[in-house]
Design a protein that fits this description.
Blueprint (H helix, E strand, L loop, with lengths): L4 H16 L1 H12 L11 H17 L3 E6 L7 E6 L8 E7 L19 E3 L2 E3 L7 H18 L5 E7 L9 H7 L1 H4 L3 E5 L10 E6 L1 E10 L5 E2 H4 L6 H10 L35 H7 L16 H6 L3 E8 L9 E2 L2 E10 L5 H15 L5 E10 L2 E2 L5 H14 L4 E5 L6 H7 L5 E4 L14 E3 H19 L4
Parallel strand pairs: 3-6, 3-7, 7-17, 8-16
Antiparallel strand pairs: 1-2, 2-6, 4-5, 5-18, 8-15, 9-13, 9-14, 10-12, 11-13
Length: 472
């Protein structure tokens, strides 16, 4: 492919080809959403495998080669593919997404079946519609648009679609070690992030880290009648509630010793308030569905974006005692909670979990037995969003969305980013994706804005052309 106007015309033709297949793209996405590939549920492992197999067929159908499932001992299935005919002088771009999804949560809270996609008001609802099956389909169609319109890609491409991102990528390092040559690339493009708002693309340069633990308090060998024993036998649910309440202060910030251990203080420019965001916290709250009168947590003296992107927080993501349905007048024998910690830059997950364990063991009331089980951990990730690859991404996003992108942090975690970039010597990692503040990923009624999804696919078409202009 020649440079100059010819290359620009080829990119424009490939982007135009996206519009011709949007209905087909949506159909492929809906087919994937119908597969409940919940990597956290052992009963759904066959569905995760079915999702991987469907992803293989989709990537093959759009011209990728050597497409297959891969894995290591104990892993969920990854999908790998490639198109490597652009020549050794041109860069290799790795396109990443994941095909596993979160559990649906409380199904009754969905307005429609979480695994039967439904369009309402320009959004496609369904678990995984935004996070991140839309990313996998976007990669396939960006590649397919180039091959359909030009017969070739402007650069070499590899694709990796992971099957265990939603459980913290526990075998990722082993997988990278085993498949390093099959994945070696010059630039990483992840379609697992999001946009600043509907119609305004984002380019993410900062992610929080992640740590988690299960805590169980046990008082009895078995449940006892609350009338016969209440007032003497301790209630494990009440005990656990007391412990959990002690983990945060009056603002909702983590309050246990070691909760801020290792946190890197933001530079002055990172603390500059963001107009239209930090000065409009209730707008943010409304966008995420906060009920009237609900106050935002975190020290109000700290800008909202810093609280969300650069500081630790703690969430109780699971709680077991006895379901309300079927409950009776009894003191349960035990209570258990799963705690999720988001970590700021510089924090070591193991060190923070050690502090959490020590605090909980000291705080347990009434002599109850305490079991603390540390789970996954991954540090925060940040990069300098400057240089040729980021310039290329900004140009491509502008071409796809027709507005300037916003450089942004994200409070979530993508465990894949740091290990992969480091495995190949710190290659640039470009994070974009199909989410927006109203997508409600991980919650009930997850949805994808179909208009922004079209713009994302077009942006990725332009991005491959932009990256092809960068020397390896």
């Amino acid at each position: 492919m020649t440079a100059g106007g010819t290359a620009g015309e080829a990119a424009a033709a490939a982007a135009a080809a996206v519009d011709d297949v949007l209905d087909a793209a949506r159909g492929e996405l809906e087919d994937l959403v119908r597969i409940p590939s919940i990597s956290a549920d052992p009963d759904r492992f066959a569905d995760v495998r079915a999702s991987a197999d469907a992803t293989v067929e989709m990537l093959r159908a759009h011209g990728l080669e050597n497409v297959r499932t891969a894995g290591v001992e104990g892993s969920q299935p990854y999908v790998i593919g490639e198109w490597m005919h652009a020549g050794t002088d041109l860069p290799t771009v790795l396109l990443y997404a994941h095909h596993d999804v979160q559990p649906p949560g409380i199904v009754e809270n969905w307005a429609s079946d979480p695994f039967e996609p439904e369009e309402r008001d320009g959004r496609l609802y369904g678990r995984g519609a935004a996070d991140d099956k839309a990313g996998a389909v976007a990669h396939a169609h960006a590649v397919g648009a180039w091959l359909t319109s030009a017969g070739e890609l402007p650069c070499n491409v590899r694709v990796l679609v992971e099957g265990e991102e939603e459980i913290g990528s526990p075998t990722l390092q082993a997988f990278l070690d085993a498949h390093v040559e099959e994945l070696r690339s010059d630039v990483l493009v992840l379609a697992d992030a999001g946009n600043w708002e509907v119609g305004v693309p984002g380019l993410t340069y900062s992610l929080r880290g992640l740590a988690a633990a299960d805590v169980e308090l046990r008082a009895l060998d078995g449940p006892q009648h609350s009338g016969m024993a209440g007032g003497a036998l301790p209630d494990p649910v009440m005990a656990l509630a007391r412990v959990l309440a002690s983990l945060v202060d009056e603002h909702g910030d983590v309050a246990f010793e070691g909760g801020f251990a290792g946190l890197t203080e933001p530079a002055a420019e990172q603390r500059v308030p963001i107009a239209g965001f930090d000065d409009a916290p209730q707008r943010f709250a409304r966008a995420l569905g906060a009920r009237p009168g609900v106050e935002l947590t975190g020290d109000p003296a700290i800008p909202l974006h810093e609280r969300l992107w650069l500081r630790p927080c703690l969430t109780v993501i699971g709680f077991d005692g006895h379901p309300v349905k079927g409950s009776s007048n009894q003191i349960v024998a035990r209570a258990r909670a799963r705690l999720s910690l988001r970590l700021g830059p510089g924090q070591d997950p193991g060190r923070v979990l050690d502090g959490l364990r020590a605090h909980i063991e000291r705080a347990v009331p009434w002599g109850l037995e305490c079991t603390f089980t540390a789970l996954e951990g991954v540090p925060a990730w940040q990069t300098d969003p400057t240089g040729p690859a980021f310039d290329a991404a900004r140009r491509a996003l502008h071409a796809g969305f027709r507005v300037e992108p916003v450089l942004m942090g994200v409070g979530g975690s993508i465990p894949f980013v740091g290990p992969f970039a480091e495995a190949f010597g710190g290659i640039p990692a470009l994070l974009m994706g199909p989410d927006d503040p109203g997508a409600n990923i991980h919650g009930e009624n997850e949805s994808l804005h179909l208009g922004d999804w079209r713009s994302l696919i077009r942006a990725e078409v332009f991005l491959l052309a932009e990256l092809a202009r960068i020397a390896r």
